[in-house]
Amino acid sequence: MKKKIVSVILAATMVAGMVAGCGSSNSSAPAAAPEPAAETKEEAAPAAEETADAAETAQAAADATTGDLSTKKVGVCIYQFSDNFMTLFRGELENYLVSQGFSKENITIVDGANDQATQTGQIDNFIAAGVDVLIINPVNSSSAETITDKVVAANIPLVYINREPDATEEQRWQDNGWNVTYVGCDARQSGTMQGEMIVDLGEAADLNGDGKIQYVMVEGDPENVDAQYRTEFSIKALTDAGIEVECLTDQVGNWQQDQAQQIVANALGQYGEKIEVVFCNNDAMALGALQAIESACRVVGEDIYLVGVDALSEALEDVIAGTMTGTVFNDHFSQSHSAADAAINFVNGETNDYYIGCDYVKVTSDNAQEILDMVK
After folding, report:
1. Do 209 and 324 fall within a single domain?
2. Same-domain status, 153 and 175
3. How many domains does the chain divide into?
4. What is the mean pLDDT of each run of 10 residues along the chain (376 residues)?
5. Can you give the three-state secondary structure of the chain, one letter per residue?
6. pLDDT number for residue 62
7. Which CATH number goes with the domain that contains 314?
8. Is 274 part of a structural domain of the chain?
């Protein structure tokens, strides 16, 4: 299991410990030296001066390590501004960075417009501008190796967010001791939670009583590991519970509401009442699916079930109203704050784990209002 806790090395304290030469732990203040009984005042004076010098050196190291963040430049690359979840994420990220001492004018957030070539140019511009740290939500996770190589070559620390590079790429960071990390949730957990919502319905999930669950799957970007895992693990939760399943259609909606609406409308036209569950990899697509379901005069919770991921405000309101079965809270607060904290560690000369994990939260009618109150 990947580590989920930020590993912080307190560089300033280490310097203090080395200068004092006392062998105490980094978390403890050096013990006061006993007064030398046989020393004259003249002999003791140089020792006192050395102690003062050591204290000044340690303080200077501490000041350098926890320097003024307002002068530091942060470059943030978002794969696409129109993505609902990333809109929440980038807003919270900027606010939190400012609250931690960064100047708003030194935080630059750019829109990759879902085009890797565009984002690559933006990364090149950030490198040329000499930013102190980069936070990147890649358009294509498969481009992570190329991105990492150019950022590391420029000696700029790098925090990946939301779209996780593959395990081989993450291992490369560790093998080379690079200042690179990933901050995000394990999408397998979100998929599992989607499936569990249907499992928890018990026999009621089998609306047509044929002994199996017929479903429609609407996927996000097929290159995105989150889409892959949510697709796989939502169904795995059903089969692990001993439920027989039948996939009626599995199509790519690219995280887009309008595409999902068309996919589900077509599926309803083809399969009609045979469809019992619609799984969507995110809430934007679930909202599109809901439009199609309502246009077909189907009723969520009565003759069809619908689940999404992200816990967007509109989706949460639908869960409360019973027009969505459930969603999964993709905690943008925890993720954006953890990403900012990792960036601060790097800027301060400290290190991070190569993977910093955050948990999803399953959302049903039982807790949807609580989550809505949190995100509004």
Report:
1. yes
2. yes
3. 2
4. 38 36 34 38 42 43 60 98 95 98 98 97 98 97 96 98 93 98 96 98 96 98 91 98 98 97 98 98 98 98 98 97 98 97 98 97 98 93
5. CCCCCCCCCCHHHHHHHHHHCCCCCCCCCCCCCCCCCCCCHHHHHHHHHHHHHHHHHHHHHHHHHCCCHHHCCEEEEECCCCCHHHHHHHHHHHHHHHHCCCCHHHEEEEECCCCHHHHHHHHHHHHHHCCCEEEECCCCHHHHHHHHHHHHHCCCCEEEECCCCCHHHHHHHHHHCCCEEEEEECHHHHHHHHHHHHHCCHHHHCCCCCCCEEEEEEECCCCCHHHHHHHHHHHHHHHHCCCCEEEEEEEECCCCHHHHHHHHHHHHHHHHHHCCEEEECCHHHHHHHHHHHHHCCCCECCCEEEECCECCHHHHHHHHHCCCCEEEECCHHHHHHHHHHHHHHHHCCCCCCCEEEECCEEECCCCHHHHHHHHC
6. 38
7. 3.40.50.2300
8. yes
* pLDDT at res. 224: 87
Q: Are residues 160 and 81 in the same domain?
A: yes
Do 154 and 201 share a domain, yes or no? no
Residue 1 lies in a domain: no
Q: How far apart are CA 302 and CA 327, in angstroms?
A: 17
In a domain, 32, yes or no: no
HSE toward the beta carbon, residue 39, CA cutoff 13 A? 11
Report the relative pairing of strands 361-363 and 327-329 from DSSP bridges: antiparallel
Structural domain harbouring 154: 69-183+331-358
Same domain, 238 and 263: yes
What is the reported pLDDT for 1? 42
Q: What is the pLDDT of residue 376?
A: 84
Is the sign of the CA dihedral 342, 345, 347, 352 positive or negative? Answer: negative
CB distance 216 to 278 below 8 Å: yes
* Number of residues that make up the chain: 376
Tell whether 221 and 157 lie within a shared domain.
no
Residue 161 lies in a domain: yes
Shared-domain flag, residues 198 and 308:
yes
Shared-domain flag, residues 200 and 165: no
